[in-house]
């Protein structure tokens, strides 16, 4: 597969920067490879976690997700399975199966790959662009933030069994 917009076949280099990093849900996420660069085949996002942080239980209808743990420890719930994952572990969450992730160590870093792409666009649309003077909000997400999460998620065919009525 050749990447789009790249005249040197499959050569690519990325650095985490303000241009590709967003405050997403309660953590930071950097889009390493976008679906636009892979003709929609996949996208890769580096997610930074903090203890107790993670998305609510959700279901992706359009993409499978894989998680490679670079740092820290996390608990995954995928369907009826509970998985304790640590640095070097890989977890796969197929589309259509409810899943959630919680960071149990102080911090974590996880590479999230979605097949096909889509999660990267979701992060970009829902997230707040990072700048060096960004101030991270305190406390849990506001009702307005949860409402926006649900509205934007519908566009990407992501649902939240415990949040939606």
Could you explain how this protein is built, in words?
It holds the Pfam family Cupin_2. It comes from Gottfriedia solisilvae. With 165 residues, the protein is mainly beta. The chain has a domain at 28-131 and 153-159: Jelly Rolls (Sandwich), CATH 2.60.120.10. Helices cover 13% and strands 38% of the residues. It contains two helices and twelve strands; from the N terminus they run ββββββββββαβαβ. It has helices at residues 119-126, 143-155, and strands at residues 21-24, 27-33, 43-50, 59-60, 64-71, 73-78, 81-86, 90-93, 99-103, 107-115, 128-129, 158-159. A seven-stranded antiparallel sheet has the order 8-5-10-3-2-1-11, covered by helices on one side. Strands 7-6-9 form a three-stranded antiparallel sheet, with no helix packed on it. The chain has a two-stranded antiparallel ribbon with strand order 4-12. Strand 1 and strand 2 (27-33) form a beta hairpin. The mean pLDDT is 90.
